[in-house]
Write a structure and sequence with these properties.
Radius of gyration: 16 Å
Distance between the termini: 21 Å
Number of helices: 8
CATH class: Alpha Beta
Oligomer: single chain
Number of domains: 1
Shape: globular
Number of strands: 6
Strand content: 15-25%
Largest sheet: 6 strands, mixed
CATH architecture: 3-Layer(aba) Sandwich
Helix content: 25-40%
Order of helices and strands: EHEEEHEHHEHHHH
Length: about 190
């Protein structure tokens, strides 16, 4: 793949920005020109957070992904994954948690959380993969490593050596969590390969 466009979405506190920083550095070490853009929103209140990461073997001029051009959508919260679908290519891939966090309108009683989001996402992007958030937390033993778990699943689709990913993860996560995060990456990579 000469050109790879990845949209990372979630809510504040889920590690969207950390994941995009890891992704960016992985791309650079793998020999790509990389550009990254991020929108924090009301991240400290559980608001939407997104980050565009674009890799290309040629020059990347813009950090933002145009609608219909994302090769991958990584979703840390399922409604955010659904909202990001206009950016997915027809041949794109969605990798998403089934985690639900009520937006303010739902918490205030002004709206209901949408139902059957996995089915709706799959109907629009057939190459969609979902993982159960609660089961994954038990598997990786730390909810703060879920973002790296999702990166592991993504890595199974990309032509970038696993050693590069692990080297960057070791540098980007807090030192005391390196082992947990590397284990989370490995588990995500295994699931992505299925």
């Amino acid at each position: 793949m000469n050109k790879i466009e990845i949209l990372v979405v979630g809510v504040g506190g889920q590690g969207v920005i950390t994941a995009s920083e890891i992704l960016s550095e992985v791309g650079i070490l793998a020999g790509y020109d990389v550009k990254k853009s991020e929108i924090h929103g009301m991240s400290q209140r559980g608001g939407s957070v997104s980050s565009d990461v674009r890799f290309d073997k040629e020059k990347v001029y813009s950090p933002t992904i145009r609608k219909g051009h994302a090769d991958f959508i990584l979703g840390f919260e399922i409604l955010e994954s659904f909202r990001a679908l206009p950016f997915a290519k027809n041949t794109g891939v969605v990798i998403s948690s089934d985690y639900k966090l009520d937006p303010m309108t739902v918490s205030a009683g002004a709206a209901k959380y949408p139902e059957a989001l996995q089915d709706k996402i799959k109907a629009l992007v057939p190459n969609s993969y979902f993982f159960n958030n609660a089961d994954t937390i038990k598997l990786v033993k730390n909810p703060r490593a879920l973002n790296v778990f999702i990166l592991g699943a993504l890595a199974s689709f990309l032509p970038i050596e696993v050693d590069i990913w692990k080297k960057v993860i070791e540098r980007k996560v807090p030192q005391k969590t390196v082992e947990i995060n590397l284990s989370a990456f490995d588990e995500g990579y295994k699931i992505g390969k299925k």
